[in-house]
């Protein structure tokens, strides 16, 4: 069956989802998240033939980096959305493959996207993208997740890689109103490009990875406590 062409956005804004091939993790440790944010930052400016900055290839309004997939709220500028994602993915895959001594694809070949043609859906996506880690059971509140753009909206100065155009959004929606909306859980009926609905009662890949990490941290703490007690002759 032939692939369907992407639906064009009248505003140039798209919700993009990139997922690891065969459910593979895209990020293994903190450095990987930082590298992807660096990539988003470096690939955004465009340059004239003489090397001087000449504009933007794309503008980001929101992102959320999950263990094995990524959400972006992105606007086309000098690049099409397809070209922008190709640049971003190619750069990060080069880094990832070199670091982990691997070859081949990291992302599914064809990313998913949907057009954003009105402000109401734009706001819905801002909420959905930032609520992803909460919905996955990884954190209790939106503000607790380290690898989303909500940190840029709350305090841009504290963000290592401020890559989003928060000013344009906050000029349309006051921060207090946006904060209330982002922290108000969306209905479960709102899926917004869910790649695949998780089976009822079955944890997602991100939940499983988060639980494993938490368990390892607890086990390490227990072993450390036992070792200290033995050194002190308490057991």
Descriptive terms for the model:
235 residues; 7 helices; four-stranded antiparallel beta sheet; two-stranded antiparallel sheet; alpha+beta; 15% strand; 42% helix
List the strand order in the largest sheet. 4-5-1-6
Quaternary form: single chain
Q: What is the CA-CA span between the terminal residues? A: 67 Å
Task: Label the overall shape.
Answer: globular
Strand count, sense and barrel status of the largest sheet are: 4 strands, antiparallel
How would you describe this structure to a colleague?
The protein is α+β, with helices and mostly antiparallel strands. It is built from seven helices and six strands; from the N terminus they run βαββββαβααααα. The strands form two sheets. It has a four-stranded antiparallel beta sheet with strand order 4-5-1-6, with helices on one face. β2 (45-47) and β3 (53-56) form a beta hairpin. α1 runs antiparallel to α2 and α3 (119-135) crosses α6 (175-183). The longest helix is centred in the last third of the chain and has 27 residues, at 205-231. The chain is globular, with a radius of gyration of 20 Å. The model is unreliable at 195-204 (pLDDT under 50).
């Amino acid at each position: 069956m032939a692939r369907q062409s992407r639906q064009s956005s009248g505003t140039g804004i798209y919700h993009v989802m990139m997922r690891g091939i065969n459910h593979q993790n895209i990020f293994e440790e903190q450095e990987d998240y930082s590298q992807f944010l660096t990539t988003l930052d470096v690939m955004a400016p465009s340059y004239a033939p003489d090397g001087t900055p000449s504009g933007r290839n794309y503008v980001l309004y929101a992102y959320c980096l999950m263990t094995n997939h990524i959400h972006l709220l992105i606007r086309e500028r000098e690049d099409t959305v397809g070209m922008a994602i190709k640049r971003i993915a190619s750069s990060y895959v080069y880094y990832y493959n070199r670091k982990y001594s691997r070859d081949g694809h990291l992302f599914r070949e064809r990313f998913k996207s949907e057009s954003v043609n009105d402000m109401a859906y734009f706001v819905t996506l801002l909420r959905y993208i930032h609520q992803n880690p909460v919905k996955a059971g990884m954190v209790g509140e939106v503000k607790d997740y380290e690898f989303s753009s909500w940190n840029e909206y709350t305090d841009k100065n504290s963000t290592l890689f401020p890559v989003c155009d928060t000013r344009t959004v906050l000029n349309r929606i006051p921060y207090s109103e946006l904060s209330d909306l982002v922290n108000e859980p969306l209905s479960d009926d709102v899926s917004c490009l869910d790649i695949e609905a998780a089976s009822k009662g079955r944890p997602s890949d991100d939940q499983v990875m988060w639980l494993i990490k938490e368990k390892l941290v607890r086990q390490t703490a227990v072993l450390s406590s036992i070792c200290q007690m033995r050194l002190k002759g308490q057991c």
